[in-house]
Design a protein that fits this description.
about 250 residues, alpha/beta, six-stranded parallel β-sheet, 11 helices, about 40% helix, about 10% strand
Length: about 250
C-alpha cells in the first residue's frame, strides 16, 4: 500500500475513451492508494461516428497528454494502451515521467504489421477508402475480433461496442511509421505488458518493444487486446500494480 499518493495518468487507445479505464482500472488503482487521472483524447468524448475527427494528428494526441501532465505538481506514472502506448513513447522523446507502462502498445516501428492483419478482413478496404476507421469496429463481431477474448460475455461485448468511437485517419497515417526516438528520458523504469490472445500486437511485437526500451516484459495469458476490460482484466491490473510496487519495501 502506498503511504504517499502517486498519480497515475491513463492514456486510452484508438476508438476508445476514458470510459475504458473507469470501468475497472480506476477503482483498482485507487484502492491501492494512487490518485488516478483519465481523460478523453481530442474527438473521443462521444461514441459512434464523429464528424471531423480526421483532423487530429498523433501530435495533437501527444499534446493532450502534455496538457494533463502540466496540471500536476509532481511527475506522474503514465499508462498507455495501444495507440496510447505510442502517444506515451512520443511523449518520452521530449518529456519524462516517473514510470511508464506500455500496455498492448503500438510498437515503436508502427502499425504496418497490424494493418496487414486488418487488411485480411472484408470490411477493411471500404473503411479505408471512405477514410472511416469506425467501420473497422462498429459491430459486435468486428470489435470482438479486434479487442476481446472468445469467451467475453454477450452483455459486456454489447456494452463496450456501443461505447467505441471513430478514429482519426490522419493519426493512423502518423502511426504507420512513427520513427520513435529513444532518448535519455526513456531510461526511466518501463514495463511492456501484452496479452497472449492479442490479435493486433503479438507477443513478438511486445518483445521487440521491450528490447527497444530495455524494459521489463510481462505477457498475460488468456487475455486479448483490451486488457483493461477484457476477461481476466483483474490479472492485468494486478501485474501492473505488482510491478509498480515491487521495489517499495527494499
Amino acid at each position: 500500500m502506498n503511504t504517499k499518493k502517486e498519480t497515475v495518468i491513463f492514456v486510452h487507445g484508438a476508438w476508445h475513451g476514458k470510459w475504458c479505464w473507469e470501468k475497472y482500472f480506476k477503482e483498482a488503482f485507487k484502492k491501492r492508494g494512487y490518485e488516478v487521472i483519465t481523460f478523453d483524447l481530442p474527438g473521443h468524448d462521444k461514441p459512434g461516428k464523429i464528424k471531423g475527427i480526421n483532423k487530429y494528428s498523433l501530435n495533437d494526441y501527444v499534446e493532450s497528454l502534455v496538457t494533463e501532465v502540466r496540471k500536476l505538481n509532481e511527475l506522474p506514472i503514465i499508462v498507455g494502451h495501444s495507440m496510447g502506448g505510442l502517444i506515451l513513447q512520443k511523449y518520452l522523446e521530449t518529456y519524462t515521467c516517473k514510470k511508464a507502462i506500455l500496455m498492448a502498445s503500438v510498437p515503436p516501428y508502427g502499425v504496418i504489421n497490424a494493418t496487414f492483419r486488418f487488411a485480411k478482413k472484408s470490411y477493411f478496404y471500404p473503411s479505408l477508402l471512405n477514410l472511416n476507421l469506425y467501420g473497422l469496429v462498429n459491430t459486435k463481431a468486428k470489435s470482438k475480433d479486434a479487442f476481446f477474448s472468445p469467451n467475453i460475455s454477450e452483455a459486456a461485448l454489447e456494452e463496450y461496442t456501443s461505447k467505441l468511437c471513430s478514429e482519426s485517419f490522419r493519426a493512423f497515417l502518423n502511426m504507420l511509421v512513427p520513427k520513435v526516438t529513444v532518448t535519455a528520458n526513456s531510461k526511466i523504469p518501463i514495463l511492456v505488458i501484452g496479452g497472449s490472445l492479442d490479435k493486433i500486437f503479438t507477443e513478438s511485437d511486445n518483445r521487440k518493444t521491450a528490447k527497444k526500451f530495455r524494459a521489463d516484459l510481462i505477457m498475460v495469458k488468456d487475455i486479448a487486446h483490451d486488457m483493461m476490460i477484457d476477461v481476466n482484466h483483474e490479472i492485468s491490473a494486478y501485474e501492473i500494480l505488482n510491478w509498480l510496487e515491487k521495489d517499495k519495501d527494499l
